[in-house]
Model the fold of this input.
Amino acid sequence: MPNKAFQHLDENKRKRLLAAALEEFSKYPYDQISINRIIQSIDMPRGSFYLYFNDKEDLYLYIITKYHNILIDFLTEALIGSQDIIDIYEHMFDKIIKYCDEGDYGRLLKMFFIGLNHNIENKLTSHITREKTIEIIHGFNKHADKKINNDVHIDDVVDILTSILMHSISGYYIMKFDFEMVSMRFHNQLAIIKKGIYE
Done:
């Protein structure tokens, strides 16, 4: 997250920095992002950048968190008319892929999934998406026709399903497999979770 100096930065300079970062993050996966390209595009001294953010990861998490509500909106939308948590994740898979290909900030999310690494995923989901997702799913489970078994922790269910979702989407963009094949595998994995592995 930004340092205090960022809050006191001239508004026009702040907007230019964030716009340049958004452009960079929408073109490259995380490991190819260059702070040099960002600051050179707006003629900002390197030392000034580090007054505002500690490092590349700091800026990246700040930008991504500004747009994570897109994913939360998909989750909230998926809840409408659904009585099954598995259905919710199936709906989200389709919506996220469509948005990555066609949405206003689709390139940003697509590069996020392509560049997803364990460290970034943990930091992002542990502070933002995971907490909000668990809160929403808890509320959903109270009125759903198909309730999650009392012996199962909703937190664990969310972690498992979110992991399958994230890795299916990142795998689709990284490996460039046929969408139908990736979709079928994703749905098969959810079916295993739903039915269990034992007869």
Remarks:
- The first helix runs from residue 4 to 7.
- The chain has two domains: 4-57, 68-195.
- Residues 68-195 form one domain.
- The mean pLDDT is 86.
